[in-house]
Amino acid sequence: MKSLKHNGIYVPSYGYKGFSIKIQGHSVKLTPKSEQMAITWIRKKQSILSPPDEVFEKNFMQEFLEQLKQEKPSLNVLKKKQEDLLIDFSEVSKYLDAEKQKKENMSKDQKKKLAAERKAVRLERKEKYGYAEVNGKKLEIANWTAEPSCLFAGRGDHPRRGKWKEGPSEEDIILNLSPGSPRPLGNWKDVVWEPDKMYVAKWADKLTGKIKYVWFSDSAFIKQNREKEKFKKAEELGKQIKAIEQHIIKNLDAEDETKRKVATVCWLILKPNMRVGDEKDPDEADTVGAITLRAEHIKIEGDTLHFDFLGKDCVRWEKSVQAPASVIRNIKHYAENSNEYLFEGVDSKKVSRFLSQKMPGLTAKVFRTWRCTKTVKEELAKSPVTKEDPLHLKKFHAKMAVGAEEGGRQKNRFSRNQNRKEKV
């Protein structure tokens, strides 16, 4: 980018109501933060489709009580064990019930009027925050609203579900603006200029520590050009895949152990379509990829490998695949001799260096992009959908094809959702 101008991003604010709760009969006045936590919790408790489970409730209560201890350090009742405390949220529950009843009692005309007012406000905000000027051209911004505070849900059976995920304030947000561009009004953390990175704003997530970004829309030319380059590299890889596959097979028997390990990891990405697996933070859920496989995740029967572990988004990844003798031998050896991970000492950088020996500039990410694209294309070719079929049917088969790319994640999600409906 040569220049970037925008008006910052929209940061939602919470409207404090002044509620109290009762703990062991003691009335406790809530602050704006603890009140927002309480309201969000009761909304979750009232949910029919996704009520909180035991882990969710335990995590929330732990966070909520810690917050109350910070707000009311002299309140002795908070010194009791979490499981011994009786907390009464009835004031919050009554408010939410009244709001729900008020909405149900509205006439159709009132509901239409309210919806029109909300739409007008959204359009006004989008006009202000939803666009940026890049190199003199007006581009749409994708997620121009900062994430509001909420209860963390994660995907699958995430161990941190129920924890409080506090949204950023202006003081947490860094804006990306070119020199000379007007600074938007607001108490922003900082203004920087990073022309090689296609973001408008960024901040550190207060729960995970990960950096969150506000990006340009997928329809923006600058983003489409970068995506084209990535898939162009993947397309080029498709033409050289036989030579790369031979490079992998050859090094499965290499004298150097690191080469054997890296080659085995590459085979797992190429054949069972496994992700690399070293992208997550240490404190995240125990999700697994090729690099982070442990002996417990693999069962060997003859020339067949059976995989069973939590994959991306904590969704169970199950697959069986036939493997050459060299792969079977390597995995058996590392399973018997590793301290924790089968491929200790291997990371995505080493995988990229190994692959670039046959194709300069080839990275583990591009290799995975090519493999996923190939799988989706194969799955789409199997689907019975035709050009004349309705859009919803085309979308269904497209989602199923993408699900197959991740080892049946989409199928697992459908099964899990169905189970939830049956319980309800």
Lay out the secondary structure.
Layout: E1 4-5, E2 20-23, E3 26-29, H1 32-45, H2 54-71, E4 87-88, H3 90-104, H4 108-129, E5 131-134, E6 137-140, E7 150-151, E8 164-165, E9 174-176, E10 190-192, E11 199-204, E12 211-215, H5 221-251, H6 257-270, E13 298-301, E14 304-310, E15 316-322, H7 325-337, H8 348-356, H9 364-382, H10 391-405, H11 409-423
Helix pairs in contact: 1-2, 5-6, 5-9, 6-8, 9-10
Walkthrough of the structure:
The chain has helices spanning 32-45, 54-71, 90-104, 108-129, 221-251, 257-270, 325-337, 348-356, 364-382, 391-405, 409-423; strands spanning 4-5, 20-23, 26-29, 87-88, 131-134, 137-140, 150-151, 164-165, 174-176, 190-192, 199-204, 211-215, 298-301, 304-310, 316-322. With 424 residues, the chain is α+β, with helices and mostly antiparallel strands. It folds into 3 domains: 4-12 and 111-215, DNA Topoisomerase I, domain 2 (Beta Complex), CATH 2.170.11; 20-106, Arc Repressor Mutant, subunit A (Orthogonal Bundle), CATH 1.10.10; 223-370, Topoisomerase I, Chain A, domain 3 (Alpha-Beta Complex), CATH 3.90.15. Strands 10-9-11-12 form a 4-stranded mixed β-sheet, with no helix packed on it. It has a 3-stranded antiparallel β-sheet with strand order 1-5-6. A hairpin with a 6-residue loop joins strand 11 (199-204) and strand 12 (211-215). Helix 6 (257-270) crosses helix 8 (348-356). The chain is globular and about 70 Å long. The two termini are 51 Å apart.
